[in-house]
Design a protein that fits this description.
By secondary structure, the protein is an all-alpha fold. It has helices at about 40-45, 60-75, 75-100, 115-140, 150-155, 160-180, 180-190, 195-200, 205-215, 220-255, 255-260, 275-310, 315-325; strands spanning about 260-265, 265-270. The chain has a two-stranded antiparallel sheet. A hairpin with a 2-residue loop joins strand 1 and strand 2 (about 265-270). The chain is globular, with a radius of gyration of 23 Å.
Length: about 325
């Protein structure tokens, strides 16, 4: 028998109100719910069940960041396997197209045109990974363990929309940031939960973008700040790995890495890096992506859940779903 969905579709009624005079499941008496946009009340928080990576109530900043790590730890087999597969694919694509672009020079030329195809392949793979990890994290919120079959089914049914939303948000945010700064910052905030909205609510491309903007409305800077903090933690992990492999690359390639361009007639010319340097660079990039991708996907997923709990009372529905699974 199919399991009931833990996340009711947007606009659908909730499980219903409790009998008169009785507090909702998992909530304290006397109406001590947190005010709109405020951090959870400590008294209320102690009553909220925690079947998965987070307590089922509006979340504090630390709970979102910590929940991303907790979801990865609780679902390590699926999360790390998916992350490793995509990281290896990205590394192999980078090595293949890097060598293809630099074959005539006996090595890898940084910035060669052939590497663009590797970037595009990596972007598609990363969007699929993000969608799959979002499924795992949002299922873990109510104490469910998503298997490979469920992840693949949801990613496959949303594949083209998932890729489109990921590319649209990434490209437009980057262009807005480079050309005007403020529009890029704004788009990065209002589209923070577009991919989670797509994976959970299954709207169209425009619907996912509108839904994200709606959930961020009125709490833009909170959403932006929490997401930025989570991505900063992710970047720190990735940067530490890249630094280690950067040192190894310099040790292997020597002066060729220290000076990637030579000056001659007509200006600067790229130097072909040895294959061993290319392999080390791609391995470091792959390991960094392997460790950082679950953090970013987890933060975006939990931001989506948190915004729905704050704006739409989703906590009560999730608590009811968790209670039903415990009874079963």
């Amino acid at each position: 028998m199919a399991e009931p969905p833990p996340y009711p579709p947007y606009g659908q009624p909730t499980y219903g109100q409790p009998p008169y005079g009785q507090p909702p499941y998992g909530q304290p008496p006397y109406g001590q719910m947190p005010a709109y946009g405020q951090p959870p009340d400590p008294f209320y928080g102690q009553f909220a069940p925690k079947p998965g990576c987070i307590p089922l109530r509006p979340l504090a900043v630390g709970e979102i960041i910590g929940g991303a790590f907790a979801a990865t730890r609780r679902n390590a087999r699926v999360v790390l396997t998916l992350s490793a597969l995509v990281a290896v694919l990205q590394a192999l694509a980078g090595i293949w197209f890097g060598l293809s672009g630099g074959a005539s020079g006996g090595g890898y030329h940084p910035g060669s045109g052939a590497s663009l195809a590797g970037v595009l392949i990596g972007a598609v793979a990363a969007s699929m990974l993000s969608g799959g990890l979002i499924v795992v994290v949002t299922e873990d919120v109510v104490g469910r363990r998503a298997g490979f079959a469920l992840v693949w089914r949801k990613v496959r049914s949303r594949f083209w929309r998932l890729v489109a939303v990921s590319l649209i948000t990434s490209v437009l945010e980057f262009v807005g940031l480079v050309l005007f700064v403020a529009p890029g910052v704004w788009l990065w905030g209002i589209w923070a939960v577009a991919v989670p909205a797509l994976m959970i609510e299954n709207p169209g491309i425009g619907g996912a973008l509108r839904r994200s903007r709606e959930l961020a409305r009125g709490m833009f800077w909170r959403v932006w700040g929490v997401r930025a903090l989570g991505y900063l933690v992710s970047f720190g992990v990735s940067f530490a790995v890249s630094l280690v492999f950067g040192v190894l690359t310099i040790a292997v390639a020597g002066s060729q890495v220290q000076s990637q361009f030579q000056f001659g007639s007509g200006g600067y010319h790229p130097v072909a890096l040895p294959t061993s340097a290319l392999i080390l660079i791609e391995i470091g990039s792959a390991i960094g992506a392997f460790l950082s991708a679950p953090i970013k996907a987890g933060v975006d997923s939990l931001l989506y859940v948190d915004q729905r709990m704050r704006r739409e009372g989703l906590a009560q529905d999730l608590q009811q779903a968790a209670a039903t699974m415990r009874r079963d």
